[in-house]
Design goal:
Number of helices of chain B: 8
Strand order of the largest sheet of chain A: 4-3-2-1-5-10-11-12-13-14
Helix content of chain A: 25-40%
Radius of gyration of chain B: 18 Å
Largest sheet of chain A: 10 strands, mixed
Number of helices of chain A: 7
Strand content of chain A: 15-25%
Order of helices and strands of chain B: EHEHEHEHEHEEEEEHEEEHH
Structural class of chain B: alpha/beta
Strand content of chain B: 15-25%
Structural class of chain A: alpha/beta
Largest interface: A-B, 46 and 52 residues
Oligomer: heterotetramer
Shape of chain A: globular
Chain lengths: 241, 270, 270, 241
C-alpha cells in the first residue's frame, strides 16, 4: 500500500497501524504494553501528542521511558528508566487487577466479531494443528483495564466466525486497529468505522471471516503526518541498533 | 545456611527424576546454565514449571527432560514459536508433553500462595475463558460480599531454581533489575538452587534489589554467564541475535539435536 | 497526577466528617503532622484505621475525632498503655469508641486485599482465639484441599495518609528504611495524602525504597518533621524521651487537653 | 533476689530471666523478636553462645544485627543492619505464616496452665477494667513458629485459672521463663521444672493462680555466669545511651 499523492512520504501498512493506534492514546493514559506493534504505538504516542503517557510492562516496570524500542518486555533499559520496578505477583495483583491501568494492548492469532481473542491453539486443544504461545497476561488484561486496544493484521484466518479457543473476552475492546482500517464495537459487534488511505471497504470485507458490519459513515484514516512518520522511523531505527 | 557448591553438585544433590522443578526469571536472569545442567545429567520425567518458557525450556523439552509443562506463555519473545515445544505438543516428539496452562495473573497468584504456604491463591480472572475447562482453577465465594472469584492451587515445586547476580560467602543472595517472581519461586519450593554471576565478600545494598537470606536457600553455585543468552543486569546484555538464530536451529529435529550435542552435552558444567 | 498543596489544603479537600481514614507508618514515618491537622480542622466521627495506633492516635481519640478504631495493637511502644485510648474504651471519654480489632497478620492481609481490589484476604490465623467472636473474620474452604482458612474483609479506606521522605515536583514519592504497610495503604484507599520531608528535583534511587508514582496519589504536602516524635530514616531520629513523657501528659484529662491546646490547636499547619 | 554465695556478681530477677531465655536459643535459630525482655534475651544469645541466631522483627527487618538494644521494633538501626527489609504484609505471609521462623517470643498480661495468653483485656470485653494493647502479632506467632518461648513475671494476677480473653493459643509453647523459675508443658500442662537460685518451690506456687504442677525432678537454674552477666549489662547500658 502506498500513500495518497498529497503525502510527501510513503508509508507501510504497519506504520499506518502504529500511527493510528498511537493516536488513540490520550496524554496521561496509563498503558499496559507488550512487545511488537503495541510497544511501537505507545512509544510513538509518548514522542508525539502524549508525552505523559505512562508505560507499564508486565515484567514489573512502571513508568518506563525507553530511549529505543525494547526487544523484550524485560529489557534492562525498561528497569533503568522506570519510576518503579515491582515483582510480577505485585504487578498483576496491585496494579492490573486493581484497575489502575487505563489502556491495555492485545494481539492474537484469532478474533471474533465480539472482540474475543484466541492466542492459545489453532485446531483442537488436545491435538492442535498449531500450538500458540498461550494467554500470558491477556485473560486478565482483557477484563481489568478500562479500554482494550487490539492490533491485528486483517485476514480471513485471523478474523473468524468462531474462535478455536477463547483466551480472552471482548467486553472491553474499544478499538481494533488493523492494516486495513479501524473497527469499533457498535451494538455489540465490531464494525468497520474507517479504512486506511487507499483501502476499499470491500478489501476489508474480503479480509474478514464473517459478514462484516460496516458503519454508515465510514471515514478514511488521516494518513501519517511527516512528524508522526519521522518520529516513528527514528524510533524503529534506534530499536534495530 | 546455603552451601556453596558447583552447579553439577547442586543439580545432582537436589534434583531427582520425576520432580517438579521451576526455573524462573521473568524476561531477565533466566537460569540457562542450570537448565543445561539438567539436560547434561539426563534428568527425566520432570514436571517443568515456568511462567514464560523460552529457549532453555525449548531445549529441555526437545532433549526429553520433561513429562509435563506448567506455564502461562511459551514462546520465543519477539521472534515467534518455540519449535521444540510445538513439536512435543503437536507431534509427541521426542515424547508427549502434558500441558497445564494458566494466565500470568493466575500463575503469579499461585506462586505467591506457595510462598505464603497457603493452599490456594485468589484472583479476579479466568472467568468466561476456555482456559477454565483446561486448567486447574476453581471458584471461591467471598464470605463478606458474595462475589465469586477464581482460586488457583498454590505452586509448591520440589525444586526452585533461579539465577542472581551475586551471593556472599555465607550464601546470602542479591538480585536486581527486573526481579520478577524469583523471590516467590525460592520461598514456594521445598528445595532451592541459586546460580550466581559471582560470589563476593560483601553484598552492597542496591536500589530495587531483592535479597534472599542464606537460610532460605539450599545451595548456591557460581555460574558466570549463567543467564546467557538472557541477560544479567549490570553484567551483560541480552543476546538478541541468538534468540533470532534459535528459530532456525530449533526448527529441525536433526539440527537441534546436533546443536545440543555440540553446545550443551559436549560442554562441561561450571 | 498528584497535586502539591499545603497540608491544611490537603486535609480540607480530601477528608470529610464520617470518613474512614488510615494513617499508616509501621514504627517509622508515622504521619503525626497529618494527624494533628485532622485535629485542628476538628474532623468528627471518623473511623480511624491503623495497625499500631500510638501517640497521634491517642491524641486524635482524646480530642474526639474518632467514632471507631480499627487496629491490631494499640499502645505506647516500650512505655505502656495509651491513656486516652483506654479512657475512651473504659469510660467513654470524651466519647465512646467502637473497636474492631484484628491481629497484625489479619490487618496486613486486609490491606493487601484492598490494594489488589479483592474483597477479602486469606490467612491461616485467628482460629481458636476469642478474637473470632469480636472481629470481622470468616471461614473460607480451599476448593483443592478442603482446608479451612480465615478470611478478612479487605480494607478500603476513604482516605489513606502516609508520610514519606521525599517527593519530586511531579508528585512521585519515595520512602525508605522500614516501609511497613504504606504502599498498601495508598493503593487500598479511595483517596490518598502523602506528607513528605521535602520536595526535591529528582528522586535518587535508594536501596530498599518504595516508590509510588504520582498517578496513584491525590495530593502531596510538604511537612518537614512531619513524622516527629517518630522518625524519618535519613532525616531525624525517634524522640524516645517524648514517648516516655507522653505517659505523664496523657494520664490526666486536663493535662492532656492543655497540652493539646498549646502544642497542636495553637500551632499553625505547615 | 540475690545470687548464691558461689557467684562473684549479684544479679536481678530480670537478668536471670533474660539469661535463662537466651540459653534456650540454639545457634542458627531464626527468632521472631519483640521489644523488652525477648529482645534482650535474643540479643544476649547472639553475643554469647548463639552468634548465628537470626533476629526477625515484625517491622520487616530480617537478620537485624543491632549494636545496641532497640527501643522500638522499628528502630532505624534494625533496617540498617538487616540482611533484608520486607513489607509488613510480606513479613506475615511469606515469612511468619510460611513457617520459616523457629522461635517466637511472646509476653502477655495473663497466661493459663495450657500456655494460652491474654494481651487484650482485663475484665469483660465490652466494658473492660483494663483495656490492654491487643494481640498484635501474637495470634499468628503462636501458631506459626515451631517453638513459642513465653517470658512473663510470675504473679497470681498473671498466672490465672481462667483467662479473661484468649488472644493466642498455647499449643506451641515450649517454655515459660519467669522471674522465679522455668515452666515447661508436661502432659498438656505447664509444669515447674526449675527454680531460679534462691527461689523455693512454694514461692512459685504462691505466685501461681492455679494449683501448680511441679516436676519430680525440679532443678535449680544455673546462675548467670560472669560472661553472661557482663555481656548483658554491656548490652543494656548501650541500649540506654
Amino acid at each position: 500500500m502506498t500513500a495518497t499523492s498529497e503525502q510527501p512520504l510513503t508509508f507501510t501498512s504497519d506504520e499506518m497501524m502504529a500511527v493510528e493506534a498511537a493516536r488513540r492514546l490520550a496524554n496521561g493514559d496509563v498503558c499496559f504494553v507488550g512487545i511488537g506493534l503495541p510497544s511501537v504505538a505507545a512509544n510513538l504516542a509518548r514522542r508525539t501528542h502524549a508525552p505523559n503517557c505512562v508505560l507499564v510492562y508486565e515484567s514489573g516496570t512502571i513508568g518506563a521511558k525507553p530511549t529505543k524500542l525494547p526487544l523484550s518486555i524485560g529489557d534492562g533499559e525498561l528497569a533503568e528508566t522506570a519510576d518503579a520496578v515491582v515483582s510480577v505477583p505485585e504487578m498483576f495483583a496491585y496494579w492490573l487487577q486493581a484497575g489502575r491501568i487505563d489502556v491495555g494492548f492485545l494481539g492474537a492469532a484469532q478474533i471474533d466479531r465480539h472482540g474475543n481473542l484466541n492466542s492459545t491453539v489453532i485446531g483442537d486443544y488436545d491435538s492442535p494443528s498449531v500450538r500458540l504461545p498461550g494467554g500470558g497476561g491477556a485473560p486478565e488484561i482483557a477484563t481489568s483495564v478500562a479500554d482494550v486496544f487490539v492490533m491485528l493484521r486483517q485476514t480471513p484466518r485471523a478474523f473468524v466466525e468462531e474462535l478455536d479457543f477463547k483466551t480472552s473476552l471482548g467486553d472491553r475492546v474499544r478499538v481494533v486497529v488493523t492494516d486495513l482500517g479501524t473497527l469499533e464495537p457498535r451494538d455489540g459487534e465490531l464494525t468497520l468505522v474507517r479504512v486506511h488511505p487507499g483501502v476499499e471497504i470491500d478489501d476489508v470485507r474480503a479480509a474478514t471471516g464473517w459478514e462484516l458490519a460496516v458503519a454508515d459513515d465510514v471515514g478514511v484514516t488521516a494518513p501519517p503526518t511527516d512528524f508522526e512518520l519521522e518520529t516513528l522511523r527514528a524510533l524503529e531505527s534506534k530499536g534495530r541498533e | 545456611m546455603a552451601e556453596i557448591v558447583t552447579l553439577s553438585e547442586a543439580v545432582r544433590e537436589l534434583v531427582h527424576d520425576g520432580d517438579t522443578v521451576a526455573l524462573e526469571g521473568f524476561t531477565h536472569l533466566i537460569p540457562n546454565a542450570a537448565g543445561h545442567e539438567l539436560i547434561r545429567q539426563r534428568l527425566r520425567e520432570l514436571t517443568l514449571v515456568r511462567m514464560t518458557p523460552d529457549l532453555v525450556y525449548d531445549q529441555m523439552i526437545g532433549m526429553g527432560v520433561a513429562r509435563k509443562l506448567v506455564f502461562s506463555w511459551g514462546g520465543n519473545p519477539g521472534v515467534g514459536s518455540l519449535h521444540r515445544l510445538r513439536d512435543a505438543v503437536e507431534h509427541g516428539w521426542p515424547a508427549p508433553l502434558e500441558l497445564e496452562e494458566h494466565s500470568h495473573a493466575g500463575m503469579a497468584a499461585a506462586y505467591a500462595a506457595g510462598a505464603a504456604a497457603l493452599p490456594f491463591g485468589v484472583l479476579r480472572g479466568y472467568a468466561g475463558t476456555d482456559l477454565v475447562a483446561r486448567t486447574r482453577v476453581a471458584t471461591v465465594t467471598c464470605p463478606f460480599t458474595g462475589e465469586e472469584l477464581s482460586a488457583v492451587p498454590a505452586l509448591r515445586p520440589d525444586v526452585g531454581i533461579i539465577h542472581a547476580q551475586q551471593a556472599d560467602r555465607r550464601g546470602n543472595v542479591q538480585l536486581w533489575g527486573i526481579t520478577g517472581v524469583q523471590k516467590e519461586t525460592v520461598l514456594a519450593s521445598a528445595r532451592s538452587i541459586v546460580t550466581v554471576e559471582e560470589v563476593v565478600d560483601e553484598l552492597e545494598p542496591r536500589p530495587g534489589a531483592v535479597v534472599l537470606p542464606t537460610w532460605v536457600i539450599d545451595v548456591v553455585a557460581e555460574a558466570p554467564g549463567g543467564a546467557r543468552p538472557s541477560y544479567a543486569h549490570g553484567y551483560y546484555d541480552r543476546d538478541n541475535e541468538f534468540y533470532a538464530a534459535w528459530d532456525g536451529i530449533s526448527r529441525d529435529r536433526a539440527t537441534f539435536t546436533a546443536w545440543m550435542q555440540e553446545h550443551v552435552l559436549g560442554a562441561v558444567a561450571a
